[in-house]
Write a structure and sequence with these properties.
Structural class: alpha+beta
Radius of gyration: 25 Å
Number of domains: 2
Order of helices and strands: HHHHHHEEEEEHEEEEEH
Number of helices: 8
Strand order of the largest sheet: 5-4-3-7-6
Largest sheet: 5 strands, antiparallel
Shape: elongated
Number of strands: 10
């Protein structure tokens, strides 16, 4: 299964989780009072308990989203779903701890935890679904829109911390080369070849490159087919792609990718 769109890793969606989830939790609990929660927490201090539980939700989601944002991970939709479930369970653990210790309920902690999971997960599943669906819609519109950025085919390169580092026109890209924990991006600017070192992996750039017509020609190289003049084979049978820019190296092409690149040049 392919990785989730990059928008799921951006800062704004994480901020939305931190803001929307606690607000929805508090509002839903106060207005609808699901699962007889008022009777369980007590009517006299019900609002106070819900407010404290909301604070616990806020802090728990904040910790989870900071971890999600700053720790590089490869997630597909299934793993992202399990991340959100784990986030809810993590939040429920501390909500249950508060109920068990402060309210002094005469019942085992794990019974309180089950109730807390029911309160938290069944309440937050709605905003989780709405935020995820919204991000999917935004990503779909971005891919199918005719806005200025897309019409100009700008490539936006983010590092492994999801910070925007480079924006260039896709037709200026010559090739991208892997270098351990970095990638070197070679492109033209005002007729001169430029390079940019980005802390990222080739795997992280797969979707971006495919969206803009770059193809893999080697496990360590992505190449932009319009810039390939010719494919040549040396005396040892190694195939290289010669580019139309001066002072750039010849790019190795493995047999695995040769046929596809060759067809694009015909």
């Amino acid at each position: 299964m392919s990785e989730i769109p990059r928008i799921f890793r951006r800062f704004v969606p994480q901020l939305l989780h931190v803001i929307v989830l606690p607000i929805f939790f508090f509002t839903f609990m106060i207005v609808y009072r699901p699962f007889n929660i008022m009777d369980f927490l007590g009517k006299e201090w019900f609002g106070v308990h819900v407010a404290i539980m909301t604070g616990i939700v806020l802090v728990s989601v904040l910790v989870s989203r900071l971890l999600y944002y700053y720790v590089p991970m490869r997630l597909n939709y299934t793993l992202y779903f399990f991340w959100e479930v784990a986030e809810s369970v993590f939040t429920s653990f501390f909500v249950a701890l508060y109920i068990w210790l402060v309210l002094g309920k005469p019942m085992p902690y794990f019974e309180v935890l089950i109730l807390a999971i029911m309160y938290v997960f069944m309440t937050l599943v709605i905003p989780y679904a709405v935020i995820a669906l919204s991000m999917c819609i935004v990503e779909y519109r971005r891919r199918n829109s005719g806005d200025e950025d897309e019409s100009q085919h700008r490539m936006r390169f983010y590092d492994d911390k999801h910070n925007l580092k480079l924006v260039v026109q896709s037709d200026t890209i010559l090739y991208i080369e892997a270098d351990i924990n970095y990638v070197n991006i070679y492109y033209t600017e005002n007729g001169r070849v430029r390079s940019f070192i980005l802390r990222s992996s080739m795997k992280a750039l797969d979707e971006l490159c495919q969206d803009h017509g770059l193809i893999r020609c080697h496990r360590s190289f992505y190449i932009n087919p319009p810039h390939v003049k010719v494919l040549r084979k040396d005396r040892e049978g190694v195939i290289y792609a010669e580019l139309d820019a001066k002072d750039v190296r010849h790019i190795p092409v493995t047999k695995r990718y040769y046929e596809r690149l060759s067809e694009m040049l015909d």
